[in-house]
Design a protein that fits this description.
With about 375 residues, the protein is of the alpha/beta class. It folds into two domains: about 100 residues, Beta-Lactamase; about 250 residues, P-loop containing nucleotide triphosphate hydrolases (Rossmann fold, 3-Layer(aba) Sandwich), CATH 3.40.50.300. The chain has 15 helices and 13 strands. The strands form two sheets. Strands 9-8-10-11-7-12-13 form a seven-stranded mixed β-sheet, with helices on both faces. It has a six-stranded antiparallel β-sheet with strand order 3-2-1-6-5-4, with helices on one face. Helix 8 links the parallel strand 10 and strand 11. Helix 7 runs parallel beside helix 8.
């Protein structure tokens, strides 16, 4: 048993999502979205480095020594998997570990709308799950892939850095590939995937122009492609996808994307509360955009600013705005008015729920 495993056991016991370790600092856990210090001594640089190197593969240590950053996955059988990131900082080494649950939660267990499950049944196209870091994008994607795994006789390829949720082949055949170990890059894996007879491709993150271009191409040539982006709304997601390309390519990409895009799911996590105000975990609010003919036309005609209106009028297709999702959680007393107000778009809509409305300096 590695020395650091005791912290992972503590994470599990406390229901923490992340473990922060840094030289000359106490360990810190993120519990239900908030950081809490562990009652433990400060770890000096040498002690922490020895602790971290004990669990890191040799080739990852070499990369870290050369670059100052590295990602990999670590697993404790019977407990959980962890996405690890090592980095250098002013006082020495640092690391952050994100717990990846051993059990893949279903769409129903996550409380996701029925339309999310239906995304796994589509024959082709591009589906994006977006949101800030730590908003549960990987968990939602894993639930969708789980549906496909249980219901489709298809070949699913996942490309991640590092591999997070591990799916065991059921009706589908699943192959997991990790960037840096099984393939050089996301773009290299995508190019290779097109020759590996895939039906579904899951790209952990679209980080660069080439990966985005290949994902759009794959979705337009008969494949169902899932991926993530760090964007906060459906409209901004579409704009980000197009703006990453040189000006002379944007018109062509706009047309290709409008044909290939099937859905954008933007999510934000909230601390969950019961009626007595006790913290009970976290719940996601979702903005869901389905690429109907009307939405595709808006993308094609450079009218993405009208996408929020299309979402409001597209409820029969399963669409919903982020504010409507937040309001649903708020009226059912799952989340606090203060957090709902902080993360919503239309502040006036949520102001009446606050006992003492704050002065919002960002509106000045």
């Amino acid at each position: 048993m590695a020395q650091i495993d005791a912290f992972f056991k503590l994470m599990n016991d406390q229901g923490a999502s992340d473990l922060h370790l840094a030289a000359d600092k106490q360990p810190v856990l993120r519990i239900r979205g908030e950081l809490e210090r562990v009652k433990y001594k400060e770890l000096d640089d040498d002690t922490l480095k020895a602790m971290l190197y004990e669990i890191a593969p040799e080739h990852k240590i070499k990369i870290f020594e050369e670059t100052g950053d590295v990602d990999f996955a670590y697993e404790i059988p019977g407990l959980a998997r962890y996405r690890a990131n090592f980095f250098r900082q002013k006082d020495g080494v640092g690391a952050v570990f994100r717990e990846i649950p051993d059990k893949i939660l279903t769409c129903e267990e996550l409380g996701l709308p029925p339309v999310i499950r239906q995304l796994a049944t589509l024959p082709r196209g591009l589906i994006l799950v977006t949101g800030p870091t730590g908003s549960g994008k990987s968990t939602t994607l894993a639930a969708i892939i789980d549906v496909a795994n249980k219901t489709r006789k298809d070949h699913i390829i996942t490309v991640e850095d590092p591999i997070e949720f591990v799916h065991v082949s059921q009706k589908a055949v699943i192959n997991h590939r990790e960037v840096g170990i099984h393939t050089k890059s996301f773009s290299a894996a995508l190019r290779g995937a097109l020759r590996e007879d895939p039906d579904i491709i899951m790209v952990g993150e679209m980080r660069d122009l080439e990966t985005i271009e290949l994902a759009i191409e794959a979705s337009s040539t008969g494949h169902l492609v899932f991926s993530t982006l760090h964007t906060s709304s459906a409209a901004k997601t579409v704009d980000r996808m197009i703006d990453v390309f040189p000006t002379e390519q944007q018109e062509q990409i706009r047309s290709t994307l409008s044909d290939g895009l099937r859905a954008v799911v933007c999510q934000s996590l909230f601390r969950r509360r019961d009626q007595r105000g006790n913290t009970m975990g976290r719940v996601a609010a979702l903005e869901i955009m389905i690429a109907t003919p009307a939405v595709r036309n808006l993308i094609r005609e450079r009218k993405t600013f009208q996408i929020p209106s299309a979402i409001q009028t597209g409820k029969k297709y399963g669409m919903q705005s982020l504010d409507d999702s937040i309001m649903d959680h708020l009226t059912k007393k799952r989340i606090s008015p203060e957090e709902a107000y902080a993360k919503c778009y239309d502040k006036n809509k949520f102001m009446p729920f606050l006992k003492k409305p704050p002065e919002d300096f960002t509106e000045a």
